[in-house]
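By convention, each integer encodes one residue's backbone shape. The lines below illustrate.
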Amino acid sequence: MLDRARRASSRARTQLALMRAMARPEASPAWSADGASLEVTNGGERLASAPAALVATLASLGLIATSASSVPALTLAGQAWLRRQLASDDPFLAQHRDIRRRQIKSAHGATATVTVNDAESPLTWLRRRKDGNGAALLDDTLFEAGERLRRDYTFAALIPRTTADWSNSGASPSSNRGASPAGAMRDDVIAAKQRVNRALCGVGPELGRILVDVCCLLKGIEAAETGLGLPQRSGKVVLKLALAALARHYGLTAQPPRAAARNATLHWGAWDFRPEF
């Protein structure tokens, strides 16, 4: 009984090590010369190895795709299984996440490394899709503009509350009398709210609504179309126009050139100058 438990534990460790190695972007899985094992390497360094019998079992479970004409790779079910095994909180919640480490830059130029869930953002979904010419639906500039608005919106606590607010339940009515809500906020929260307001005013109310729905409230494109009364399949086009205007507001793209006549000086005159008719 003890030997069986040890073999099962060793088999589980080998399976986890193999699938973790295959999930790495730079991994190169290949069968050994005699076909007895699957080797995963990276630049000549062996990351993991598993016997062919174990690989066949994982393939029968739908966790690994193997065929004579393709390189063995993790299936979607295998990727979900691996995320569950590596999850530290809720395995089944982590299965639907796309957790990555990313560096972000604040408005003051400071950088920080944070953990983000790329699966929750509709902009990430759009960024991974291609148009008819093979180009990404959203370029880096439009994506960064939307993410910047989302960071400020979230930091400023503008997302609608879905639960009761018990923060002032123990305070007497007189204790809060005369207190300014803005006075209790930190300066950076107020600044974030001001940046959101300026951004939405800069793009206008017609385009600002879809930015709030998709970028800030993380609604899908179809849900945003329905909520805003837009024609079907027009949400992506309207969203790209809104993100382009937002990127210009943030200074990520150049301002469109104005007509020369608007910038030209028509006439200089003294304080008592009067035109002749």
Summary: The first strand starts at residue 28 and ends at 31.
